[in-house]
Amino acid sequence: MADTTVRYDWPYQEPSDPPDGPALGKDLAEAIEATVGTIDDRITALIASHLTPVTVAGATAGTAATGFTVNNATIRTLAAGKHVYVKLDIRTTNAITAGGGDIPDTVIFNVAAPYRPAEITSTIFSATPGTGEVQMNGNGDVILRTADVTISAGRDLRMVFEYIRP
């Protein structure tokens, strides 16, 4: 059996070779196992490099805007930073007045550059009592947009963003 496939170098029997089924089966099985093992090792390494979570917190995640303090800011990424999960717990220093659900656009946090979305993404924040809409823009600004009640000073605003970066 002197002949092998071009791409994977798997052995095969030519019509002019003397029949030797057991040797062909063993040689082919070992060659296939080596090829599949190499492919498996490469896939495992690729998964590890793209799906190993990276977590940053505190000042590495970003900074609070004036009038707000950070209780917790955690960012987790997967897929080499393309899948981003941002969890924020921000405390208000001053009250935020809601009139008919609308509040003046209020920047509360700025996400660090490596974790910013390519386009505006929105989510809901909770502040007991009350909820509202919050957005994050491509500059990383987290902006309060609406609230169903006035948010008193010292209230904690909790929110989660999840998005895919290009």
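The above is record 1. Record 2 follows with the same two-line structure.
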Amino acid sequence: MSRPLKEGLDYLTLDCNMDTNFKLVEAEYGSKGFAIVVSLWQMIVGEKGYYSEWNDEIALLFVRERRPDCGVNLVNEVVRTCIRRGIFSKELFETYHILTSSGLQKRYLIATARRKDSGIRKEYLLLKVAPKQDNETETPVNDSKNSINTDNNTQSRVKESKGKESRVESPHARQQSDTELYASLCSKYGRSFVDERVERSKQYKGTNMRTVVKWCEEDFGKKPVRKRNGFCNFQERNNDYAELQKQLVQKSLLSNDKKGGGK
């Protein structure tokens, strides 16, 4: 019997700086509101990866297993506020009674880029879709226009005039390669570090993900130079501490001798 395919993820990534909608929920409900939203994300990412069904029964189990310090009424109220503020998709909740968002879907596709069988149900899809190519299915893409579909890279072959065959990557394959590079860089250097270099690359013509890889390797190896201030801006001394200790001992002995002679 084959092993069932894994749906969820083992980890949840959180941004250091939350967006305004999340801050408003926290401002309205305090620390419990913060805890409820994060616990909802943990449930979604851990179980299905990018969505979760939501009804009265699931709400009861959620409170019992994840937030016993919060009543089911408070949890449902926070969920409704999250939908109203756009943290979860209002349209998909009203149509399919699920909790999901474009951010959850994008993170899920990036995290599962190496899985052969992973993707988002078409009716739940909130991301943009790349144009269809021959013998290919529609491919979800993220806001930076990098493909994040998980199929194997495809290549097209063209014959040269001498009869030799050379492989040429199709644009679709190149996008997939960029996405895999992005996911690999994020796991190695951290998402915020990589995103800074991605944004920098948009300012120059002719740059690509290979440029971002080079910048990450160069910048990550640089150590910040510590600036001297008024407390540490002094000339270091090369003292012979063994000789200094010897002088102090002799001085102490002479002092004791003088005291003893005066008695």
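Residues 131-139, 141-176 have pLDDT under 50 and may be disordered.
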